[in-house]
Automatic annotation (TrEMBL):
Belongs to the PBP/GOBP family. It comes from Yemma signatus. GO terms for molecular function: odorant binding. This is Odorant-binding protein 22. SUPFAM superfamilies: Insect pheromone/odorant-binding proteins.
């Protein structure tokens, strides 16, 4: 797993908020709710993002899952591929070639079918991140440019 792909997946989740179908004030509300619920500071979240790693600490994994639930990317203990694809399409619309977008949408569909609710608490969000990373590497996708 390359560092670039890991950065890609983490930054995707962290920046989906800017492409979210929800208004910005709701996104901030979700971040606040999930950070308080999981006893994680914004400083710690920024530190994890800066290290470009998939969270391993329970409170960080639970933050990811909480945020994905609030964004409706996870519903009923399953990945919601339609919602995730809507957000990705909006985020990548003017930044990526159509072929890249199509592959990412395909990966989202594949992973939503492959990733099931793990037995462990707060593992669904990070399992989706890992799946997307694996399949993006297999398809030879470079990390998407977010700015």
């Amino acid at each position: 797993m390359s560092r670039e792909h890991l950065v890609f997946i983490i930054v995707c989740l962290a920046t989906l908020a800017s492409a979210a179908l929800d208004p910005p004030h709701k996104i901030l509300e979700y971040v606040g709710q999930c950070s308080r619920k999981n006893n994680i500071t914004m400083q710690k979240l920024m530190e994890l993002a800066g290290k470009h790693i998939i969270p391993t600490e329970e409170n960080a994994k639970c933050f990811v899952e909480c945020f994905m639930e609030r964004m409706k990317m996870i519903e009923d203990d399953k990945i919601n591929p339609q919602r995730t694809q809507e957000i990705l399409k909006k985020k990548m619309a003017n930044k990526q070639k159509p072929e890249y977008i199509e592959k990412m949408l395909e990966i989202t569909e594949i992973c939503s079918n492959e990733v099931t609710k793990p037995e462990e608490k707060c593992e669904l969000g990070v399992a989706m991140m890992a799946c997307m990373m694996t399949h993006s590497e297999e398809l030879g996708l470079a990390p998407m440019k977010l700015v």
